[in-house]
């Protein structure tokens, strides 16, 4: 993909130019100045950050309630929700949002991405909250904190590795989401995975532009994941092995 993005289109189709070619940044220049990739990148950032924040705001208290009150059936339901294919949610979501006139808005994209990100946040955080000693919360309540106060001042700080892991994975899954973004974003709010298809025409495919756009889409997530890899592995391992 990276090699093809540095080739002229005529060289991509030439087997003699597989490795012996003159690199060019023309494809990247075209993508950044003559396509909707920059605008789509802005949409992707807003949607991914929005979906991640909403997932944390709703998912963290939900995971805490499941962990502390032993609501295992709810946890099983969340697991089943994650197992269902996205198309099962798409049709009713599309009908509802169309009637509300919200198709092609940030709201429709963020809410639809919650189907993927929020169950993941809850599922990851349940094990972390279960491993926070209940005695610490009881001691905090003896000192005058309410249960909500103990949650914010005791439980959440002790669960930072899990929160970081859940946030990172939620962002990545939302960033790469295609199905919901294609249908519910329409032409007004194209995200990067959807914008890549603009390089595919009926008669031809702009392979150079497509490869360059794919590299630009992948690069932020790759760099982000590379630097956060230790935190993700440590967070998942801690949640799986403690207790």
Describe the protein:
The longest helix is centred in the last third of the chain and has 35 residues. The protein has one domain: MetI-like fold, CATH 1.10.3720. The protein has 13 helices and no strands. It has 243 residues and is mostly helical. Helix 4 runs parallel beside helix 7.
Q: Summarize this, please?
A:
This protein has 243 residues and is mainly α.
Structural class computed from helices and strand pairing = mainly alpha
CATH architecture: Orthogonal Bundle
What oligomeric state is this?
single chain
Helix content: over 70%
- Amino- and carboxy-terminal Cα gap: 44 Å
Shape, per Cα inertia axes: elongated
Evaluate the radius of gyration.
Answer: 22 Å
CATH topology value: MetI-like fold
Total number of domains? 1
| Helix count, DSSP H or I runs of 4 or more residues | 13
Membrane topology: Multi-pass membrane protein
Keywords: Cell membrane, Membrane, Transmembrane, Transmembrane helix, Transport
Domain ABC transmembrane type-1: 41-228
Organism: Georgenia yuyongxinii
Please give a handful of descriptors for the protein shown.
243 residues, MetI-like fold, single chain, elongated, mainly alpha
Topology overview:
Layout: H1 2-5, H2 9-12, H3 26-34, H4 37-68, H5 72-83, H6 87-99, H7 106-130, H8 134-142, H9 147-158, H10 160-175, H11 179-185, H12 192-195, H13 207-241
Helix pairs in contact: 3-13, 4-7, 4-10, 5-7, 6-11, 7-10, 7-11, 7-13, 8-9, 10-13
């Amino acid at each position: 993909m990276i090699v093809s993005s540095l080739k002229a289109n005529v060289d991509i189709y030439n087997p003699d130019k597989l490795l012996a070619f003159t690199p060019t940044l023309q494809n990247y220049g075209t993508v950044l100045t003559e396509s909707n990739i920059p605008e789509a990148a802005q949409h992707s950032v807003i949607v991914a950050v929005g979906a991640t924040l909403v997932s944390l705001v709703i998912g963290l208290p939900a995971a805490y309630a499941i962990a502390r009150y032993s609501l295992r059936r709810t946890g099983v339901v969340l697991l089943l929700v994650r197992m269902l294919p996205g198309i099962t949610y798409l049709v009713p979501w599309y009908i509802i949002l169309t009637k509300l006139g919200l198709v092609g808005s940030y709201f429709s994209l963020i809410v639809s991405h919650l189907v993927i990100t929020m169950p993941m946040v809850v599922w990851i955080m349940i094990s972390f909250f279960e491993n926070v000693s209940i005695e610490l919360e009881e001691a905090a309540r003896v000192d005058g904190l309410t249960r909500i106060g103990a949650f914010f001042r005791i439980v959440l700080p002790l669960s930072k590795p899990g929160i970081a892991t859940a946030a990172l994975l939620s962002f990545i899954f939302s960033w790469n989401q295609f199905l919901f973004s294609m249908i519910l974003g329409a032409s007004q709010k194209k995200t990067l995975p959807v914008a890549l298809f603009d390089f595919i025409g009926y008669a031809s495919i702009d392979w150079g532009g497509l490869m360059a756009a794919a590299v630009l889409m992948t690069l932020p997530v790759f760099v982000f994941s590379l630097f956060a890899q230790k935190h993700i592995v440590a967070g998942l391992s801690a949640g799986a092995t403690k207790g």
